[in-house]
Design goal:
Blueprint: E1 5-7, H1 21-30, E2 33-39, H2 43-55, E3 59-63, H3 75-84, E4 90-99, H4 107-124, E5 128-133, H5 136-145, E6 153-155, H6 162-170, E7 174-177, H7 187-193, E8 201-203, H8 225-236, H9 240-255, E9 266-269, E10 272-276, E11 295-296, E12 299-300, H10 311-318, E13 327-330, H11 339-351, E14 356-360, H12 364-368, E15 382-386, H13 392-399, H14 404-416, E16 422-428, H15 435-444, E17 448-452
Parallel strand pairs: 1-2, 2-3, 3-4, 4-5, 5-6, 6-7, 7-8, 10-13, 13-14, 14-15, 15-16, 16-17
Antiparallel strand pairs: 9-10, 11-12
Length: about 450
């Protein structure tokens, strides 16, 4: 599967790039940076951003006036920004914000022009790209005043406090770090980055500034995004490809560049390959996002029934199952709805030296109107069944199903034991679920127990 990265903040219009923009973009594309977003800093650079957007397919832009340059910002400028933002390749208002480190623009004028541009973004239904330096108190007073308005913000080159980060994340804003996350002496920045949910993390270079290790001292450019992704990956125990996938989807979603990433049939998490079997389900769990936002780690799993592929598609994407720790049949829906397809793929995986697992709600026998457990013999190595609660009435409430399905699920688990060597009952760490009592249920029927994260 091809990895794609997005640089959400690069200033390719600056004089640092005057002689070699085509070469810079080519190098970025060679590193799979297929999307670059260029925020303007003043009215003149807005026009330069527009030209770059016209000249290069993978370049998108933002128009706005930086706090350093807003001393003479006027109503005429605001109207011009509104007109420029009508272009389909202008995807944000930015770079805007507050900067009290330098005294280029009086604070009251910065605040005035910042609010005017925030209001414009809301009017145009565009996100904003925010610069914040030594202005936390005023910044947060303003951001709190827009809470609940629908304002969507990216705080770029984040370097504030953990308390500030926590509040911005709670407001559902997005955060990005530059090459500074690779600097050896900035452990505080790396620690801050771990407080950002993956679903709200973006990648940026802020090029030509903030060049990552090992290129410090040289001009920064979008081709260095994988170095930043690699640091995020090391901190989170992921691969840089996974970071690229997640953050690119986040960029698509935040900036509205594409409604969704391409439909995913198989996707790698850690050392396992996951099979997107179906988005259909006989249950309707209150903690499941399959209807509203069927996306996991940046992978679009929202597959309609008409889009469900046959076994050969999965087999062709798996290629060699031995390169993965296991092949996991899952999806946002209930995979045993397509048991015949699972069985065909699983037979092929086992014949070619791979390991298999199914993640299921345990209703496979009800769905298929027969006991399918014996059919798993020799082709399914592990099965993880959603217990969800020790109490059948709570189970029925969580899954929006009759209570009788609880007994059917436990019966299914017991019937799998003779044919599947690793049977697991799992629960989501949902606030109302009693983990200890749920584990006792698994112990009582002699199977393993696992807790799944609630998001």
């Amino acid at each position: 599967m091809k990895t794609m990265y997005t640089d959400t903040h690069t200033h390719l219009f600056l004089k640092n790039f005057a002689d070699d923009v085509p070469a810079v973009i080519k190098r970025a594309e060679e590193q799979q940076i297929e999307l670059m977003i260029i925020p303007a800093i003043d009215m003149a650079s807005c026009e330069e951003v527009m030209k770059l957007c016209r000249d290069y397919t993978g370049v998108y832009g933002a128009v706005g006036v930086h706090p350093h340059d807003c001393k003479d910002f006027s109503g005429k400028d605001l109207q011009q920004l509104a007109e420029l933002a009508q272009s389909p390749k202008i995807v944000a208002i930015g770079e805007i914000g507050l900067d009290y480190f330098y005294d280029f623009t009086p604070k009251n004028k910065q605040i005035e022009s910042f609010r005017e541009q925030l209001d414009l973004a809301l009017k145009l239904d565009l996100p904003v790209i925010i610069h914040n330096r030594d202005s936390d108190d005023d910044m947060m007073e303003i951001m709190r005043s827009y809470a609940g308005s629908g304002l969507r913000a990216q705080f770029h080159c984040f370097g504030g406090s953990s308390a500030l980060l926590e509040e911005l994340v709670a407001m559902h804003h997005y955060i990005s770090f530059t090459g500074n996350i690779t600097f050896r002496k900035l452990d505080s920045i790396r620690e801050l980055s771990l407080s950002v949910p993956l679903s709200q993390l973006l990648l940026e270079t802020d090029s030509p500034f903030m060049t990552p290790v090992p290129h410090r001292g040289k001009r920064n450019e979008p081709a260095y995004i994988p170095l930043i992704a690699e640091t995020h990956a090391q901190l989170r125990g992921l691969t840089k490809e996974e970071i690229g996938q997640v953050t690119t989807f986040n960029a698509f979603k935040f900036f509205g560049i594409q409604k969704t990433a391409g439909l995913t049939y198989t996707y790698k998490l850690g050392h396992a390959l996951y099979i997107n079997v179906s988005n259909r389900c006989n249950a309707d769990c209150i903690f499941c996002a399959r209807k509203e936002n069927p996306v996991l780690h940046g992978y679009n799993l929202g597959m309609a029934k008409s889009e469900e592929p046959d076994a050969t598609v999965y087999i062709n994407e798996i290629k060699d199952p031995r390169q993965y720790s296991e092949i996991v049949f899952c999806g946002y829906g209930e995979p045993t709805i397509r048991w015949e397809t699972i069985r065909e793929v699983a037979v092929w995986v086992k014949a070619n030296g791979g390991n298999t697992r199914i993640n299921t709600n345990g209703h496979g026998n009800i769905i298929n109107k027969r006991n399918i457990a014996p059919e798993m013999d020799g082709i399914i190595d592990s099965i993880s069944i959603s217990l969800n609660s020790h109490d059948k009435s709570q189970y029925a409430k969580l899954m929006r199903l009759p209570e009788s399905y609880y007994d059917e699920m436990l019966d299914f688990a017991q019937k799998c034991k003779p044919y599947v060597k690793d049977v697991v009952l799992s629960v989501v760490d949902y606030p109302e679920v009693d983990i200890t009592a749920s584990k006792a249920v698994a112990d009582s029927i002699g199977v393993h127990f696992r807790v799944r994260g609630y998001f």
